[in-house]
Amino acid sequence: MTGDEQQAAVRRAALAFVLEEAGFAQLTTIDRLGFPVGRSMTAFLNPDWSVDLVQRRTHARLAQLRRDPRLLVTWVGDPAPGATNERPHVFDIGRLPPRAVYVRGTAAFLDDAATISLYRHHVGRQRAQGFTKAPLRSPEQVVEDLVGVHVTPYRIRLEGFGAGAQAFDWTHPDAPSSPADAVRPIQGET
What we know:
Layout: H1 3-22, E1 25-30, E2 36-41, E3 44-45, E4 51-56, H2 60-67, E5 70-77, E6 99-109, H3 112-128, H4 139-145, E7 146-159, E8 167-171, H5 179-182
Antiparallel strand pairs: 1-2, 1-5, 3-4, 4-7, 5-6, 6-7, 7-8
């Protein structure tokens, strides 16, 4: 397998891991004092490595993202089948490295129409899979209760998808040169 073929296979495996196994993501933003703040939430990884978020309007992370739109979205899960850790780099803790997908990027708030569309798409997929416990919202309730955010990827890192502790990371080809270049105008009341 060539290097390009290995990169493509690893990227496919990482996307499948997030879509089929990983579950909740950990979202890290920067608070008003400049410290990282993490929390678990649902995040949707797209095939182009961008990420979509839909959350309730009450979350402090929204003010944090308005202040500083840079963030990190992380999915971590069990080691890959057949994983090894034959040569630990520093410490041997007797465990295999987990699979992890990290997307560093810049958040842009979506307008009401895009938020409704994103919500409908993902709630439809979840309900088709039998996940029906979350309340079903009308378009009016989506606008009133929820905020959509699109994350433009800057840098992606994959761990646990290669041999041992091998990692794969790259700068996204469409990465904005600065956070200001990724921010879309805010439309609607967010």
